Amino acid sequence: MKYLRTTLGPKSKPELGMILPHEHVFVDLRTPDQPGYAEAETEDVVRLMAPEIERIKKLGVTALVECSTGGVGRRADIDLAVSLATDFPIVVPTGNYREPWIPEWVRHASERELEAWMLRELTEQIDEIGFQAGWIKLSAGDDGMTALETKILRAAARAAAQTDAVIGSHTIRGRVVMDQLDVIEAEGYRADRFISIHTQEEKDFAYNLAVAQRGAWIEYDHVGRAGDDEVAELVIRALEAGCGDRLLLSHDRGWYDPALPMGGTPKPYTHLSTVLLPELRRRGVDDGTLMRLTHDNPFEAFAR
Question: From the annotation, which residues make up the binding site for Zn(2+)?
Fold first, then answer.
């Protein structure tokens, strides 16, 4: 049986319902060498973010995927605190973001060392905090992978191949996604265990199709950040092209930002439930398809 690895332990499909596959609880987009990077009082984060979790619980959301990885302020301890305060499972990644958000230790580590680090977090625990990483989150530059980003991806593919973990990457250009898939397959892993994060940013829809047809997940994670008509039309276009079994939907919203006074003002995780799904239903998308997009696909993408 497959499980979602969460802050509250492994969760089976019958234990879960709707899952948000791309959100943030805590993010610091300053580079790791900046003063105060990723620093915050845990109680302040819980105070700001717990109400946002409670709102989606009332809408039937049963888990979310935290997409803050190494280099952009991953704080698994804070994710756990928010999770415990709300009795709500959060899926936290291992891995690291792209340049220039790469800590010095990652920059100087060998592929073997990076593989061992990710493997430990996937199979044992993150930073002695007590729960396993649920997946691997990476990124690549808009113009193509740098040598350092390629090193991290190769190490990720090797760690993932030993655990069946999914690899998700913030990658804007479809052609760069295809290059990433080439690297993953060259390391002996599979395209169907890759998520093309921010697929909507590739405006050539042919690349959306090419990535999905290769077996990877495509993720439209701009719900509530782009116009509802635009998002609905893109989703329906993907469904009509036969991509419904490889499509993920989310907001890419939240979050506590330690660079802002009191963490800033969070943007709710509710728009998918309260606006987009009713709009898709109004446009003729049946309930079975909506269930697949919001319940089945996220579980299948992240479970192992």
Answer: 22, 24, 137, 170, 198, 252
Q: Point out the annotated binding site.
A: 22, 24, 137, 170, 198, 252
- Can you tell me the distance from the alpha carbon of 214 to that of 32, in angstroms, rounded to the nearest whole number? 35
In this structure, whether the domain defined by 4-302 belongs to CATH 3.40.50.1460 is answered with no
Q: CA angle, corner 144, sides to 143 and 145, nearest 5?
A: 140
| Per-residue model confidence as pLDDT tens digits over 116-135 | 999 999 999 999 999 999 99
* Domain-wise residue ranges, the chain: 4-302
Phi/psi at 19 (5° precision): -130, 135
pLDDT tens for 44-79 read: 999 999 999 999 999 999 999 999 999 999 999 999
DSSP-assigned states of every residue in 172-204: --HHHHHHHHHHHHHTT--GGGEEEETGGG---
- pTM (two decimals): 0.96
